[in-house]
Design a protein that fits this description.
2 helices, alpha+beta, 248 residues, 16% helix
Amino acid sequence: MKKKIFIVFFQIAMLSFAFSQEAKDIVKKADEKAKGKTSIAAITIQTIRPGWTREMSVKGWTKGNDLTLILVLAPAKEKGVVYLKRKKEVWNWIPAIERNIKMPPSMMSQSWMGTDFTNDDLVKEASILEDYNHSFLEDVTIDGRNCYKIQLLPKPKSAVVWGKVIMAIDKKEFMMLHVEYFDEDGALINTMHCSDIKLLGDRLLPARMEMIPANKKGNKTVLIYSSLVFDTPLNDSFFSTQNITKVK
């Protein structure tokens, strides 16, 4: 009898692991589609508040999950500001004071340049693949598209911003279409919705992302891709503190 009970529990455990691995593979596929081996993007970011709207233009480079560089092109006040991520380190170059500042982990949850994105959202310090456990919740429909609804819970020793992330990924095209971010107490903090699906580079992807805070009525940040190029060779040395002051 005990042997049968052990076998049943073992089978349940193996089935649970298989579903978890399959959920992680779907998240990985969506993540890799959006990034490629490398990517170079031109992006407009609109910060919208009840009484005003502010617009920024940025250029971003990525290589895998470990290397990211973001250059602010406009407005003039912030032109030349650079954010650099190398593995778990994040640096911020501020040309107005000619300082290169290493950002502590405590700053990852703070607003990125006054937007509704966090520093972690923009430079992806936390890996959605390695820092979380993944599980299926249910099938959902987002803007007429059939999607997997997947829950991400942080691993015990992971230093991450969010206590829980729930994302909807298109079943056919493996696009991330809707993401909800929760704090450690389970309260919804931000919702990101992706739309305006079109060919970016050679891939069908959302060109518009809206980040909407849950408790700030009338506030949102809109990120719009005007171009996205994949798999251009980029040396690791491009993503260096030496290059951070030279990139254009």
